[in-house]
């Protein structure tokens, strides 16, 4: 479900369309950086890596059809996509697990550019708790529930080793977090009302290795 950017109505949008919206927003941001005011569906589709027909179909769910002979207004369409993705309201984020990956995520400037504010860093290790990363003091895991409540956290990022990831996930859910992004290389279980997104870099590399091996075997 997304909020219709023009009239505030809630519309059902296919998950596959939602998954492509960040790509459209990224392409629109690139066009805006080049001082492009209007763009065609063909140009935007090429930049987003989809077909023009797919792009037009996806944007129709947002009530955006472009203008014949003119195309899409870049700034207006960017605003529409941002609203549809829920980026009009800043989302507060806690990162759990401040190892190498956690450090990198905490220092990633792209969160702020997309309307996300990292408001807390949490770790279970006494050696890490109390250190400062990206301007934030790392806090102990046993304070996670209080952190989520007092700072209005709505999204949790899990950057822990696989062994402790489910416990961290359970703690986030119990604290009231309904959106979780995990980088832990294992499957996690969440209740139906919680949205879980997983980024498994090793698995993606293995898939690339599979295709590379196939190309090598066939001489392609």
Automatic annotation (TrEMBL):
Its main location: cytoplasm. It is found in: Cytoplasm. InterPro entries: CoA-bd (IPR003781), NAD(P)-bd_dom_sf (IPR036291), Rex_actinobacterial-type (IPR058236), Rex_DNA-bd_C_dom (IPR009718), Tscrpt_rep_Rex (IPR022876), WH-like_DNA-bd_sf (IPR036388), WH_DNA-bd_sf (IPR036390). It comes from the Bacteria. NAD(+) binds at residues 97-102. Pfam families: CoA_binding, Put_DNA-bind_N. Residues 23-62 bind DNA. The keyword Coiled coil does not apply. Residues 87-187 form the CoA-binding domain. Keywords: Cytoplasm, DNA-binding, NAD, Repressor, Transcription, Transcription regulation. Modulates transcription in response to changes in cellular NADH/NAD(+) redox state. Belongs to the transcriptional regulatory Rex family. Homodimer. NCBIfam families: PRK05472.2-1, PRK05472.2-2, PRK05472.2-3, PRK05472.2-4, PRK05472.2-5. HAMAP family: Rex. This is Redox-sensing transcriptional repressor Rex. It comes from Cellulomonas edaphi.
């Amino acid at each position: 479900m997304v909020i219709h950017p023009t009239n505030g109505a809630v519309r059902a949008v296919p998950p596959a369309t939602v998954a492509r919206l960040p790509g459209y927003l990224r392409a629109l941001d690139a066009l805006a950086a080049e001082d492009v005011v209007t763009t065609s569906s063909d140009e935007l589709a090429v930049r987003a890596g989809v077909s023009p027909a797919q792009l037009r179909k996806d944007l129709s769910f947002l009530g955006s059809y472009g203008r014949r002979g003119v195309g899409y207004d870049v700034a207006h369409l960017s605003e529409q996509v941002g609203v549809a993705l829920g980026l009009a309201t800043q989302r507060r984020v806690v990162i759990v697990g401040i190892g190498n990956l956690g450090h990198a995520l905490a220092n990633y400037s792209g969160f702020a550019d997309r309307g996300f504010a990292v408001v807390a860093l949490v770790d279970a290790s006494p050696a890490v708790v109390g250190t400062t990363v990206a301007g934030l003091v790392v806090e102990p895991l046993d304070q996670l529930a209080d952190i989520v409540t007092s700072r209005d956290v709505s999204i949790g990022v899990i950057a822990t080793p696989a062994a402790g990831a489910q416990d961290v996930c359970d703690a986030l859910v119990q604290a009231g977090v309904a959106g979780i992004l995990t980088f832990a290389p294992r499957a996690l279980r969440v209740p139906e009302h919680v949205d879980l997104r997983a980024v498994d870099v090793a698995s993606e590399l293995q898939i690339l290795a599979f295709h590379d091996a196939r190309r090598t075997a066939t001489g392609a």
